[in-house]
Amino acid sequence: MRSLVTGATGFLGSAVMRCLISAHHDVRVLARPGSNRKNLAGFPVEIAEGDLLDHASLHRAVIGCDYLFHVAADYRLWVPDPEVMHNINVLGTEALIMAAAEANLKRIVYTSSVAALGLSHNGSPANEDTPCDSSAIRGNYKRSKYQAEQVVKQLTIKHQLPLIIVNPSTPIGPGDIRPTPTGRIVLDTLMNRMPAYVNTGLNVAHVDDIAHGHLLALQRGKFGQQYILGGDNLTLLQILQCIDEITETSRNRINIPINIMLPLAWCMEKIALLTGDEPRATVDSIHMAKKLMFFSSSKAECELGYRHRPAIDALRDAIKWFRENNYYQ
Known about the structure:
By secondary structure, the chain is an alpha/beta fold. The chain is built from eleven helices and twelve strands. It has helices at residues 11-22, 55-62, 82-102, 140-159, 181-190, 207-220, 236-247, 258-275, 283-288, 298-304, 311-324, and strands at residues 2-6, 26-31, 45-49, 67-70, 107-111, 163-168, 170-172, 196-197, 201-206, 226-229, 232-235, 254-255. Helix 7 crosses helix 11. The longest helix is centred in the N-terminal third of the chain and has 21 residues, at 82-102. The termini are far apart.
């Protein structure tokens, strides 16, 4: 069994790679020339150099593979040029899925995101069938993942593809080398940069549990179906308090109303345009924070046998990895 994994140099993709190796898959990874390959070091993988924007490289990468795990995505809450994110997340995904279809791969697992799904109006956990109002989507990342998922669904129906969609929630754990926007929240808390919080909530899951959910989707998922791979629903304050508990630290934090954060986020974006650095908060992310981003993994639990460990374990493993890799002392 040979599996091609995209995004294996990144956070979730590297966890999927490790999971497949443990399951005795031969693994080939698609890696951009010059990319940071720390997450590949020491693992028995074949590297196919390529890029989601280089469609010829995608056709070369899928040759000889049985399965595709398309995990790669441009995951940023802010980009100076949204077209770049669209080209990677939407057009690159379309090109890769079509390359896999032409190569007659046996199964395809596409990593979407809960960002592509709807949210409940009353704060209760949303599921795969919760309606999503596409006209109300905020943020380039969320919009691109929604559009990519729609393209994948259309291709699956049109070409009768052996494809399963998974929608991970918020992964936490080891290997977050960039780190991701959520990983930055953990790091900022560890470095006393989170003196305040807003009333929002996230679904937090261990990255290795989500990775195992990908393998379960390959083994047990139904073609054309999608499955939320999540964990515990926690408010932002509860997440920060979990980090305090792990580090045995006591901190007093201020609750900032979301409307007060909007002008601050606007200023951060303007500064980012000058510096090129990703802002700590964006206007779109603050608007999204007005809703509790809570989700249910019941479908994956029932149909795939998916399970997740407590969120505090994910946070503990993330903190341990950040410390061991000198992200903070």
